[in-house]
Amino acid sequence: MYSKMGSTCYSAYSIQSLNPTCPSSLIFTLHKPQLQQTHNIKETTRRRSVRSCNSNTRTRRRMTGVAAMNAVSTPEVDVQNQQELKKGIAELYDESSGIWEDIWGDHMHHGFYEPQSSVSLSDHRAAQIRMIEEALRFASVSDDPAKKPRSIVDVGCGIGGSSRYLAKKYGATAQGITLSPVQAERAQALAAAQGLGDKASFQVADALNQPFPDGQFDLVWSMESGEHMPDKQKFVGELARVAAPGGTIILVTWCHRDLSPSEESLLPEEKELLNKICKSFYLPAWCSTADYVKLLQSNSLRDIKAADWSENVAPFWPAVIKSALTWKGFTSILRSGWKTIKAALAMPLMIEGYKKGLIKFAIITCRKPE
């Protein structure tokens, strides 16, 4: 593992030294049969590694995959709870997307700012575009006509802001998926209005079971949707599955802080704060950046890089709260419904989490082997 230009890069086996824990007890509990199965996998792997000392490469790869599953502790959410979560997410964005677009435009994600900057609303919208460009730069996505992406998937697309931007920038086809029918319909309408109806398409689909064949996309893009995923292991597996050989995966998501080697879990007060946020934003268990890196490693992905951009998004939530306190914002929230009101009331908790160093705004990028 080594640092370069503010990011952390991971070599083939340095990931084994990380020791994160995903606090899955925040929302769901891990069933005992699943714990027993994990234990059996670990024990079987241990025996095989002892008997196969001349197969070090295969053993390391197998142990990395098992370590990733154990470290993240992603719960096997029962069908009923998972369906309730998806329903809540869809309804939240059905209610709130129109308000967001009216005030902030079609990019439903943080902006990227210079630290300690003072900005206006127009600057915030520019910062959202800058977030996209900075993510592309961080992942070294090429503008070379011979190397630029031709096929893009936007996982958790909102109303399609990133999809349309990327399709236009690269002359590529972009497909977006969301749980919200309102978002999918609006995203398609905006694409048609912007003359991108033949380049950008949108549908209601589950990121944990994407309706695409293996290896379809040169660029797999997930901008602030990973935090909604109840099964992080399956989520990362799907990102890897739909990526084309040599394709790039860009994952920008909310994480909790990495744990120190002496810690087994977050502090009780930290869990309590995250739990409050989860209930308002329809989030399952949070994971750390290190958790995600382990999962990417377990899928044999290469050139993994990660960075903490929390300082670069610091002005965002105060600006969102300020816009919500205007007469237009306040009345719109009240009209929208209870889910949007709950989310609005939780916004100060996000600021608290960032200030305490508990919440991290992470970017993680990697490449699928040729």
Automatic annotation (TrEMBL):
GO terms for biological process: alkaloid metabolic process; methylation. The keyword Cytoplasm does not apply. Residues 153-251 form the Methyltransferase type domain. Residues 215-223 are annotated as: SAM motif II. SUPFAM superfamilies: S-adenosyl-L-methionine-dependent methyltransferases. Pfam families: Methyltransf_11. Pathway: Alkaloid biosynthesis. Residues 242-251 are annotated as: SAM motif III. Residues 152-161 are annotated as: SAM motif I. Keywords: Alkaloid metabolism, Methyltransferase, S-adenosyl-L-methionine, Transferase. InterPro entries: Methyltransf_11, PiNMT-like, SAM-dependent_MTases_sf. It comes from the Eukaryota. GO terms for molecular function: S-adenosylmethionine-dependent methyltransferase activity. Homodimer. Belongs to the class I-like SAM-binding methyltransferase superfamily. gTMT family. This is Tocopherol O-methyltransferase, chloroplastic isoform X1. It comes from Nicotiana sylvestris. The gene is LOC104247874.
